[in-house]
Amino acid sequence: RTAGLWFGGLVATLLAVGVASAWLNPNPTGSASASLQFRTEFAATSARMLASAPVGGVGIGQYYPRSHEYMSDELRAYYPYENAHNYFLQAFAELGLLGGALFLSVVATGLRLGWSALRAQPASPALSGLFAGCCGYLLTCVTGHPLLVPEAALPFWAAFGAMAGASPAGGTAPAPWFRKGAAAAATVLGVLLVLALVESRRQPGIPADRGFHDERVADDGTRFRWSTRHAVAWLQGDPGFLTLLVRAPELPGRPRPFIVQLEADGHVLQRTPVPTDRWLQIGAPVPRRPDGARRRIDLRVNQVWTERRDRPGPGVTDDRPLGVMVGYPNLQEVPK
Fold first, then answer.
1. I need a labelling partner for 191 at 20 to 30 A (CA). Which of 113, 198, 268, 300 fits?
2. What residues contact residue 166 under an 8 Å CB cut-off, 6+ apart?
3. 145 near 92, Cβ under 8 Å?
């Protein structure tokens, strides 16, 4: 019980220090507050992914390639694809509530057996080091995903297995605090399962464009929207020739060219530099979608900029990430 209190106090202290650091250093670039904000956005992304497939998850290894479908616009402006920055949330999103609960049960059983071994041999430096190391490593999984890296996962599971295997046969009976914690975790998982099932049964509406800012009109009358690093638009699934007007901003002191990549339903159609002095029409023929669903159009930009940072001036406070000027996609019918 004393060790449990010490461990809980340590975790609470670390959380308090982290929150205080984020509050005292609100600089949005490279600060603790920015890190906390990003991880909050990643947690929301994981929750949306889990709600889309609450029982079985989206599949092992599918979090990264499908993450852009569930990110907010703010997060997508920085990360086209990314992992959850929380291994436990990523496990639940990929495995679902059932698989995630089984994964947690494996971790909880190993820790219980390791604690039993440590109580049976309290003077063993090896067991003390194994138990402390495994607990510390699992704490890093709350803000990162080290177990996704094979070179990091293999040593951990070897140490974790050695710690659990050192327990007496069957281990000791779970402590009352362990049983209460397991019951609380099961209750939370049950509530999440119900909420996720309700969310997953909602009828999806027409998908909305994402990764664009408000509409504007250029000097030549062209209607456009500023993109972020990754923008998504939707079109009907008919066959035809997809075209899109793009134009890069003129930024003093930034010689690096803007490059856009146009995709349709996950297939790359074109990747090209974008001029700053004229509109460039990009596009490619697209076939009919066999399922009749709407076609997803992705536009990826190799860099972003902001008005406040790259075009400073009196009264310029807009710090939103901007990419290139993008006209509205057009699907031209192919002559028969």
1. 113
2. 113, 114, 117, 121, 127, 130
3. no
Q: Which two tokens stand for residue 294?
A: 């709407």
Say if CB 97 and CB 192 are below 8 A apart.
Answer: yes
What totals of helices (H) and strands (E) does the chain contain, helices first? Answer: 9, 9
Range in 155-164, 173-182, 206-215 the model is least confident about? 173-182
User: Whole-angstrom Cα distance, residue 52 to residue 231?
Assistant: 21
Percentages of the chain per state (helix, strand, coil), in multiples of 5 = 45, 20, 35
Residues 291-321: pLDDT tens digits?
667 888 999 999 999 998 888 889 888 888 9
Q: What is the dihedral of CA 209, 211, 215, 219, to 10 degrees?
A: -130
pLDDT of the residue at 200: 47
d(CA 277, CA 78): 26
Rounded average pLDDT over 269-287: 93
